[in-house]
Amino acid sequence: MRVRSTIVLFGVLAFVGGWAAFERLHADPRRGAELDLDSGSNALRDAGRVMAKISKQISPSVVHIEASHRTVLRGEVEETGSGVIVHSTHLPGEYVVTNRHVIAGSELKEIKVTLPDGRQVNPERVWDDAASDIAVMKVPVEGLTAVAWADSDVAEIGHPVLAVGSPFGLSQSVTFGIISAKSRRSLKLGDKGVLNQDFIQTDAAINPGNSGGPLIDLNGRVVGINTAIASNSGGNEGIGFSIPSNLVSRVVDQLLEYGKVYRAYLGVKLDPEFDITKARALKLDRARGARVMAIYPNTPAARAKLQKDDVILSFDGIDIVDENHLINVVSLSPVGKKVRLMVLRRGEKFPVQVDLSDRSVAEDDSTPSVPQQSKADTPVEQMKFSAEQSESSVPVDLKLELGDFKLQISIRRSILPK
What we know:
Elements: H1 2-27, H2 38-58, E1 62-71, E2 75-86, E3 94-99, H3 100-103, E4 111-114, E5 120-121, E6 125-129, E7 134-139, E8 160-165, E9 173-184, E10 187-188, E11 199-202, E12 214-216, E13 222-229, E14 240-244, H4 245-258, E15 264-265, E16 268-270, H5 276-281, E17 290-295, H6 300-303, E18 311-315, E19 318-319, H7 323-331, E20 338-345, E21 348-355, E22 357-358, H8 359-364, E23 378-379, E24 381-382, E25 385-389, E26 397-402, E27 405-412
Helix pairs in contact: 1-2
């Protein structure tokens, strides 16, 4: 058995070395004479250096966050999360981006941001957006190192990424993985859900406390903000979700420029159960696009004369996958924009022009013109790491609560970064 294991090990090393040698030879045929089986080891060392360089580059931009608030049933609750430092093109100063659920319900004095150099500060102001679970905090310091945003649209499945944050309160932790999938939309996040869903899925280890921390590409740029995990155990099982950087940067820019996020809307109710049977009945070869179940009066959809059982196949040149996809792209479109839809009606395709209005107008109107949140099929947990404190202020053991799952952790609160 030992001989067989040794043969297998050498076979793997030979394969790795040969593959690396082939890649280097393909890049520069003149180096063929220099290559040997050690090239596999060299490739691993080179990869390690790249990871170390990226980690060193991003670490001055990642912060640790502790936020506390009181509840009637649980007393004082402390949440632990992560954040990333950004600069704004609209306002001077230093800002930290995190998840809204990390600091929700906390006053400014109850939020502690631990900077990479160990300083602790309270934010001066907070902006948040429940529909995307993004929050931005202005911190009273100068000269911080800000991150650069990647273009999450060009990130591909299989691309290596690093997750940085404070899992279980252990700040500046770095893990490695790949982008496992993109455009995950049917996720149930929190009690009310999240409107803008277009998550990046990764197998990089992220755990409670990673919420708000960055997902980094191999150029050292932020490709996503880590938000949730799908887990039966309450910890990492290789399925984590990040808000893509293009969505985050848009939300952050609007929060800092306007104090809110302006979202367009159509004014339709969409079918969350649009399947192949319904698609064939409407003369589609497969379930694609978003089926309209109802049109609310005095809305862009009503003015464009959309009808029940219309299937919206494309929106502003974007092929629509399902109702969640349509909700996301519509709400992120500029208010007032004229948009061309491709609609299937009674088996025929034709274009429709729509003038998009502001979603907040619909929300302030008594008419229920906002499309309903689509069905969320995959329950996932936002990664908040909670510590409870009794009325006598005696430290107690940490508790991790994920929905109905509760885990008592035999670590005292004193290990959390101060």
